[in-house]
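Entry 12.
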Amino acid sequence: METKMIGSKIAEARKKLNISQAQLAERLFISAQAVGKWERGESIPDIITFNRLAKIIGVDLNYFSEDFPSSISKTEPEELSEKERPSAIKTEKRPSWNMSRGNWVDADFSGLKNLHEKFSSSNMQRCLFVGSDLSGLLLKSNHVDGCDFSNSDLSNSYVQKSFLVSNNFQNSVLKGAEFTECHVKNCDFSSADFSGAIIKSCDFTKNTIQNAVWKNTSFVDTNFTNLVFNDVLKDCSFENTAFSKVTFQNATLYNTFFKCRSMKRIKFIDCKADRMTYEFLKNGKADLSGITLVTT
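Predicted 3D structure (tokens):
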């Protein structure tokens, strides 16, 4: 793909949304200078940023290919925040509560809808968010301990540089969520849906992940310790990840990419894998004795 062609398409889509380079950069958690370099054809986003960019401007990844028509697809772009809306199209304002830098203990936010307030840099202990709508929420530099997010919607949320310890995420929706530079330990993610989620530069330790949904989930530069995967993994990727005392038991792996530092500490018990996944594991010198090759 030509960088100048990609840059031109990024600029075109951004202008149709009527947002500035700085506003697009803020939504991507990068600098405005980086967006400027893309649009001038001096560089291109990495694959994770490409996926996030596509969601924001309302296109699929084919839009960036040379043969794809230079027009925006029918995919709906992510809704702009009040701050990002051009003044001519601003919607009616509602009260905005800044709940950042707080010390929240034993608070009950269960069942609340459209809870998109700011919780960054907060200490949160034993708080309840059961059945709450937290989609699109930004948690940055938080310490979250003993909180209950069961049956909550955390889709498309961003959790950055946070400590998540002993929290309950049972049956929660984490579709498209991004965890970056987080320490996640002793949390219960049973039956949680991680479809399209990205877990990057995290420590993921001693968490319960029984019956979780792993589809198009990306793990990048992440350390896994004391975990058991026992479900179907489809179209997932493990890139530059490290494993210690990790077991795949009664798991089925389809089209799952492994490019890891070492696979010697992964144990496979009664697992199934398609040819593509099997060859990735074989190339990584994984112990294949507990894997049965299946055709799809």
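Annotation: Residues 68-74, 86-95 have pLDDT under 50 and may be disordered. Helices lie at 3-16, 21-28, 32-39, 47-57, 275-283.
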